[in-house]
Design a protein that fits this description.
The structure holds two protein chains of two kinds. Chain A contains 20 helices and 22 strands. By secondary structure, chain A is α+β, with helices and mostly antiparallel strands. Chain A is elongated and about 120 Å long. The two termini of chain A are 31 Å apart. By secondary structure, chain B is an alpha+beta fold. Chain B has a four-stranded antiparallel β-sheet with strand order 2-3-1-4. In chain B, β2 and β3 form a beta hairpin. In chain B, α1 crosses α2. Classes of the chains: A alpha+beta, B alpha+beta. The interface between A and B is medium-sized, with 27 and 20 residues.
Amino acid sequence: MTKKQKNNLLRILAAAALLIVLRFIPSQRITRFVLYMIPYLIVGYDILLKALKGLKNRQPFDECFLMAFATIGAIVLGLTSTGDYVEAVAVMLFYQIGEWFQSYAVGKSRKNINELMDIRPDYANIEGEDGLEQVDPDDVEIGTIIVVQPGEKIPIDGRVIEGTSFLDTSALTGESVYRQVGPGDDVISGCINNSGLLRIETTREFGESTVSKILDLVENATSRKSNQENFISRFARVYTPAVVYSAIALAFLPPLFLMISGRDPLWSTWIYRALTFLVISCPCALVISIPLTFFAGIGGASNAGVLVKGSNYLEALSKTKTVMFDKTGTLTKGVFEVVSIHPEGIEERELLHYVAHAERYSNHPIAISLKKAYGEEHDDCQIDSSEEISGRGVKAVINNKTVLVGNEKLMRENGIALEPCTKVGTIVHAAIDGQYVGHIVIADVIKETTADAMKQLTEAGITDKVMLTGDKKEIAEHIAGEIGIKEVHSELLPADKVEIVEKKLTQKKNAADVIAFVGDGINDAPVLARADIGIAMGALGSDAAIEAADIVLMDDNPQSIAKAIRIARKSLRIVYENIYFAIGVKLLCLLFSAIGYANMWWAIFADVGVMVIAVLNAVRALNVKNV
Amino acid sequence: MKKTYKIDVDCANCANKMEVAAKNTPGVKDCVVNFMTLKMNVEFEEGADHKEVMKTVRENCKKVESDCEIFLK
């Protein structure tokens, strides 16, 4: 609680206590008025002052003015006819309770959200003359050696120069996945060093480091306002004056009409109704709860490893109907692996052995995956010569045997009859001393989570899933078939991808439907920018992706896409609940007060009660654990 | 040029009013007030003296919401 909040709470309690005491003190006319003015002024003096200042600055239609006007009106009615001041004091009292609650709730959620995003490192360790020194990360220059002890956060992006450890990335990704790092590995700030002592040479300044960028992004996210927020500020701007004028009309027109038609004008009744009208009208429930919901939703999402760059993107995400995917690195691991081995006349292991040895000196991605599949290839086998034949493969002499490893062309040119393969992927054939010995299939592997992610997306109401890839047609179609994507566009250049997205954008059935594109960064940047929302995946440490996308998934798990959509839906559901609830209750109460059914107490509920409920509802958006 | 200032204000509607007041101040190209983070992002016109402009912005905001504060570092 801040000092101001404490102060106001005391005033509220004092006024409430006085009000109760006064009920038991019999008093008449002017003494009664004076007595009731004490709690009224205690709890409301600042509102009255603000209302006056507002009048002076020609800004009459604010909440303070409404409250001051309504309560003073009620007091005047008390003086002239009813002799009842309780309502006036109560309205002011409850208004202040509402204000207090709002300020407390907002302060609390501000704190909660900041705690969720508590990835900001407080210090960096530098080796000084007498041991470790803690310094402000802002003061650390590029190229400085910092020391990160087990249990500490890495404060600045850099490269490990000494030590090995496991890093916990959960603060950034929302999931506890441990990364092993050793000398030469790049590490990013915000990760927690789990086991060993690391010496890191910084490669960036603190302000440019991942953790600063992420914090900056999330903190400024709510500055990009959603349609709902803009609607509410426009709404509040016309709404308050409209209500004030209606209240004036309500106070004067019916009595005048009654007077003209020769009946009792009932002035006090109509003025009372008009005052009730004013109390109900306060737009705070809406004005506070909608931005609060977005703020909480974005905060909750970032805790789950989904960074949303603005309220408007959260809104767009909730309306997503079509998701387009890049294949490599998004749906698949983006790394080639041996998926099957078909030997002819020799053992599987032996085939792999020869192939791996033939590729010993090659750094081609295919060679690397073959060596990886075999394991430790550096045994005492003799490789006499090894020659790369561009666009074909490798010819090597291993243990005095001539080994050919490569594609169909290589085999044909050497007059070797090969066995075609039905599997999809890159096929590596092999022959020993002119004899065909079989082939190995290498392919990009689908992520374990992809199939489930597609199912979750369908459940989340995504009607169209489209795969865009630069890869060959049969590979693309094979993978799409495995994971259940029906629409596939293959053999595309980056510019073709943009074209397809643009075509999709013009073919939308419904203008409000949103098309999202999911890619893994750098080469997808133009498409990320062109789609309604660009979602970058596996962005940990990749600045280009963070810059280009509207939504950033910190891990590379496609299930996060569905999760992000569900979080957005939940937040938007809460936003609409609050809009309909608050406007609905207020309109109903306004109607009832105009026809005389609602008294001041209703009005207090319509004002303060609705606001409290709306704020409590908004805070729900923060909880994304079981979304 | 863009600058961010810390602000203090009690209610979301008041923050909206500050935003409008700041936007209408000469020298200010655009302004976004973020009630949740209590920050004001101001984009200044080319060649405007941001210190002078912010003084006027502060005065104008005070006019629409007497309780607000902008911390001009």
